[in-house]
Amino acid sequence: MDTSSLCLGVLCLGEASGYEIKKMFEESFSHFQAASFGSIYPALSSLTEKGLVTFREELQEKRPTKKVFSITQEGRTQFLETLAGTEPTEQYRSDFLVLMMFAHLQPPQQLEKTIDNQAANIRGELETLQGILKNCTELTAGMRFTIEYGIAANQALLKLIESRKSALMAAIDQEQSALKELKS
Amino acid sequence: MDTSSLCLGVLCLGEASGYEIKKMFEESFSHFQAASFGSIYPALSSLTEKGLVTFREELQEKRPTKKVFSITQEGRTQFLETLAGTEPTEQYRSDFLVLMMFAHLQPPQQLEKTIDNQAANIRGELETLQGILKNCTELTAGMRFTIEYGIAANQALLKLIESRKSALMAAIDQEQSALKELKS
DNA sequence: ACATACATGTAAATAGTTACATGATTTC
DNA sequence: GAAATCATGTAACTATTTACATGTATGT
Description:
about 180 residues; mainly alpha; DNA-binding
């Protein structure tokens, strides 16, 4: 889904500035969607032109003026249509798995570092998600589901890494020594 | 990781044409990397210019001439450096989870369809991955790991969907009727 | 008849990210 | 003194996908 629609979605939950939308992306969407200022600000401009959102300017002392955006009725309608018309595609891109795919070409220590690092990252993500579940009380059922989805996947992956790591390392060692013997 | 490096990686496993590289992407990488002809062919041209791969032309009866690419020593060295220098970033983009995030804005039947569809897709992916594990005997340990990784994640997600679906649907129904009462 | 597999390649269009520009305030 | 937070915005760059162009053979 493109940044424009995602902004519309966030504004369905309440008014917000571009900066705040970015923060919400990071807090609530970051494990399955991303957007940067470079795409959010232009999106909000074009949504304003189309009449799907409006904004008021909020003057602040010692801070730049804030543009607080609200979704219009047309914007709401449009977003519901987008939801109805979106086929739920999924894409997963992992350089970690590329590294594992070519494990047999790498020094074992390097590989072990990569694996341990991946496990640490997953643990971190898991803690973040569990923290959200604990601390945020007013989540809708749908939002809670997206968090649980992330937790389920990460728990399974962490378990897999922990249970398979030593066997994988041993197998790689074998493959590499077999390769060396072949050469000599 | 970019298409060029990925092509280099595939060619580390043996010589291949652009068409065959695409097929290998689909068969072995598709659950964590993607590439189309529009990026593979230009990548192979530029790799050839840089001397990282070479090709011979294989004339075929009743088929266009095939360019069979092989990796050079420099190509191999370069790919090992790429592997060493790649930080294993991961990105997951899911429109399914966006749809779940805004579940409270959608008609329950529409939502249920989305969920059932997602479950079916996961089951399909799971079967594909398990098929690879069964049928492909000569996988390296690293390759087997990437498949097991996909299986672990998908099994966990399917289990989650199956166990949480009815509760989610019920909660959404409640949220929506609460909203309607508020309006009236 | 139509889709799929085989086979290579280009060009336009897409959709972003990264880095820059600007600048006060607060926290480490 | 450096980094992070707040706040908006632009422009160049990157890397891709999609669609097109071309053509045979085989399967449905």
